[in-house]
Amino acid sequence: MQELALIHQGETLERDAAREAERSRRDREFEARVAECGPLAFRVAQGVLRNAADAEDVAQEALLRAYRKFDRLRDVTRFRGWLVRISFRLALDRWRSARRRERRETEWSLPERRPAPPTTEEIAVSNQFQSRLEHALDEMPEKFRIVLLLAAIQGYTLEEVAGMLGVPTGTVKSRLFLARKQLAEKLR
Amino acid sequence: MKCEKHQGKILETLAAGGVFPGELSTHCQACPACRNFYEQQAGLFRSIDAGLQAIVNHEVPPSLLPGVRARFDELTVPHRAWVSHWSFSAALAVVVILGLSLGYVRLRPGSRPNSLENVAASAGAMGNRKPELQPLLESSTASIRQSHNGTRSRDLPPVPSTAAPEVIVLVEERQAFAKFVAGIPRERDLALALTQPAPSISDGSVEISLLQIESVEVKPLETVQEDGGAN
């Protein structure tokens, strides 16, 4: 009986050790993915939010969500696209809620509390084209916006962008063409 | 018309980021208006590309990855606490359910130690019970139990099964009954009689008639003597 108990205890210990090894392997793999794809998640969020602190927060949140569901990801090579989509979606949510809040505050704030309108000098100093571009980008459909942002990130080809979005390369090219055309029309 | 067509092609080529076809290049070199248009539009697309790259290729803050690791730690520690809290609650719930089940089983009428089945079993153990009498014993205890329950259900108010014992049997009664059941194998006729239904006694009508006295003899009282007094 004691031998049986010892054998059983040994099996349990082996199982625990195997589980712990599997978990540490998984954590190491995830750490490597985070180091590789974390900056990409940040840049996607930055493209939507255009605020480094918010983008960092969104990227961290996206990585946390990816970590929680990392076991469900069958093909680890698709992690990058998965993370990009999570980050883009989270950034869009935050951008929309910020816009709603901004609109509400503008509507309800008293005239004396409203920020003073920019002076002529400030307008002249500010980069008008950049702000117009950002405004035009905000008004783009989501599928065009993500393609524009990913294609603008340095180091990624259109094939890689297509892989991230899970669409054919021809679709990416077509969307990029239409998006750039729309942007040019708005900024002309 | 020709220039409009070329300018449309210039726009599409710039938007697609492709290479100009030879015919279009030749026309732009020859036509100042189209060349001017091309330069304007090419500048616009360059500005768009530069603006987009400025937006997305922002320097990654060095706190990004350490922040992620810190949030992982925050995530895992409360998760474990949450798991232990729920496992403790689940264990507590299991203990409570087991306790309630055991209490119910102990208070259930069929599981009482002084029930008739147990008495019959102890009686069987006490006496040398013959195999052929086993069904008789079972049926007799069952009929006794049935009649007892029937009486109880008719005469007594319903008692909650968990509140009070169903049958209160004194120790002397139990011993006497056990002795009686143990003696059944020796008295075969009695055992068989116990299994038979009781004969139905049909009571006839009873007539109550007046008391009839055929003859009454009336005697005079004895003479009271003067010294004894009257009774």
Structure notes:
In chain A, helix 1 (2-49) packs across helix 6 and helix 6 (142-152) packs across helix 8 (169-187). In chain A, 80% of the residues lie in helices and 0% in strands. The longest helix of chain A is centred in the N-terminal third of the chain and has 48 residues, at 2-49. Chain A has 188 residues and is mostly helical. With 231 residues, chain B is mostly helical. Classes of the chains: A mainly alpha (188), B mainly alpha (231). Chains A and B meet through helix 1, helix 2, helix 5, helix 6 and helix 8 of A and helix 1, helix 3 and helix 4 of B.
Structural features:
heterodimer, A: 188 residues, mainly alpha, elongated, B: 231 residues, 8 helices
Q: How are the SSEs placed, and which strands pair?
A:
The complex is a heterodimer of chains A (188) and B (231).
Chain A (H helix, E strand, L loop, with lengths): L1 H48 L2 H17 L10 H30 L11 H6 L2 H11 L3 H11 L5 H8 L3 H19 L1
Helix pairs in contact in A: 1-2, 1-3, 1-6, 2-3, 3-7, 6-8, 7-8
Chain B lengths: L1 H15 L5 H9 L1 H25 L7 H44 L8 H11 L7 H22 L15 H13 L4 H8 L36
Helix pairs in contact in B: 1-3, 2-3, 5-7, 6-8
